[in-house]
Write a structure and sequence with these properties.
The complex is a heterodimer of chains A (about 80) and B (about 350). Chain A is of the alpha+beta class and about 80 residues long. Chain A has three helices and four strands; from the N terminus they run βαβαββα. Chain A has a four-stranded mixed beta sheet with strand order 2-1-3-4. Chain A is globular. With about 350 residues, chain B is mainly alpha-helical. Chain B contains 17 helices and no strands. Chain B starts with a helix and ends with a helix. The chains are: A alpha+beta (about 80), B mainly alpha (about 350).
Chain lengths: ~80, ~350
């Protein structure tokens, strides 16, 4: 089970990243969970300064931009 | 940009070639804009150059492509420059700096570090928790929206490089000065106390692909994202500007926004702070107002108040700053903008 997290305080770009990541995981057909991390203190604790950020299985892989869902697919196991 | 253009950037040599070819084509088209616009408006559409409609149409046909082209060029260049900076790197450069030098470095970095306004809160916490002084952090946060690449491109297109440079210098000056004053006021107690308790993690992100082709791609991404979003505003602003150009009598603005009316600068700033527009819509209108006799300092102050201080951003910062600090922040930055407007009107 792959754990996907989208870190961001809820702006339009965070929503875009969430949608893009969900689509990528679904199209790839992997088993996954996806959740949002919205608390700024939690976001900073994870070492993220620029939102939106994407974590896969707890590891931050993208920060500060919204990649295409193809680019996210390449990051998924 | 098509997917093909991005794909072709894979090898550095091809990327360099494509960027150079793009620049060459840009210069050629740019040089042909003036004659082409005149021919379209007066030759093809048979509009009288002296009539309001003829002058408005010729103005629009010339200014719209010119502004959009300069916008693409400046946004591309800024996108490339920004690929050298990340928020994490900026924080490392600022941590442990003293005030004064710290404010100067922070303001400069604020203009080249890529981040969207919704990142302001995590950035603020991350900076403060890493030991960047409060005033230095605020210099960074003031400079980022105040010195805006879209505004810079539009000022360059419509007013020339001198005004663009003045905007850059005074925007940085306001960010440095305001951050320094706010730091001196010892307002740390007006930061929400939990901010200082957060233990910021070290930068966790794997570095992104660099190299010439990666940077060219960053520039293209910036063009696609920013120009793709603001072009309707630019065209709308230029259309309003063209209408003012054609129909509003010369010097009608001199009485209201002219340099003799000293009170017009603070009034323009008060009016501008609650307004929320992007630079793309506001600069062409500002240009048309100046043409009709408004003073440069007054409208520049208005523009800075509109784009540099926005209520939505203030609301976001309320999560980490208590009201007295927010009030001081707004008051000092607004005072800086008023000072810049008055000085401009006196000097120019």
């Amino acid at each position: 089970m792959t754990r996907i997290e989208v870190l961001g305080t809820g702006c339009a770009k965070c929503e875009a990243l969430y949608a893009s990541a969900e689509r990528a995981a679904r199209e790839k057909g992997i088993a996954f969970t996806i959740e949002k991390v919205v608390d700024p203190a939690d976001i900073v604790r994870r070492g993220v300064l620029a939102t939106p950020a994407l974590a896969i299985d707890g590891e931050i892989r993208i920060a500060g931009r919204v990649p295409s869902s193809d680019a996210i697919k390449a990051l998924l196991p | 940009m098509s997917a093909g253009a991005t794909g072709a950037l894979r090898s550095p040599r091809r990327a360099a070639g494509l960027v150079l070819a793009g620049l060459g084509a840009w210069v050629a088209v740019y040089a042909a804009l003036g004659p082409a616009a005149g021919w379209l408006a007066h030759g093809l559409m048979r509009l009288d150059p002296a009539s309001p409609l003829g002058s408005a149409v010729a103005f629009f046909l010339f200014e719209a492509p010119k502004v959009l082209m300069l916008l693409v060029l400046v946004v591309f260049a800024v996108g490339v420059v920004r690929s050298y900076f990340t928020p994490a790197r900026t924080r490392a450069l600022l941590a442990g700096r003293r005030e004064a030098t710290g404010n100067v470095v922070a303001a400069a970095l604020g203009t080249v570090t890529p981040f969207c306004s919704c990142s302001a809160v995590p950035l603020f916490i991350g900076f403060v928790a890493a030991g960047v002084p409060l005033g230095v952090t605020l210099s960074f946060l003031i400079a980022a929206p105040m010195v805006n690449e879209v505004a810079l491109a539009l000022l360059l297109a419509l007013f020339g490089w001198k005004v663009a440079a003045l905007y850059l210098a005074t925007g940085l000056g306001i960010a440095i000065g305001s951050g320094f004053v706010l730091g001196r006021l010892r307002m740390e107690r007006h930061v929400e106390s939990w901010v200082y308790e957060v233990e910021a993690g070290g930068s966790a992100v794997a570095t992104e692909a660099a190299g010439l082709s990666g940077r060219a791609r960053a520039g293209l991404d910036a063009v696609r994202e920013i120009v793709g979003k603001v072009w309707p505003w630019v065209l709308g602003g230029i259309a309003v500007g063209a209408a003012i150009h054609g129909w509003v009598p010369r010097d009608v603005m001199a009485g209201i926004l002219g340099e003799d009316a000293w009170w017009s600068v603070p009034a323009a700033v008060l009016l501008g702070v609650p307004m929320y527009s992007n630079a793309a819509g506001i600069v062409p209108v500002v240009h048309a107002l100046i043409e009709k006799g408004a003073a440069l300092g007054t409208v520049l102050a208005f523009m800075m108040a509109v784009i540099g201080l926005s209520l939505p951003e203030t609301v976001i910062l309320r999560k980490v700053l208590r009201p007295p600090l927010i009030a001081a922040f707004l008051g000092i930055v607004a005072a800086g903008i008023v000072a810049v407007g008055l000085v401009f009107n006196l000097l120019l």
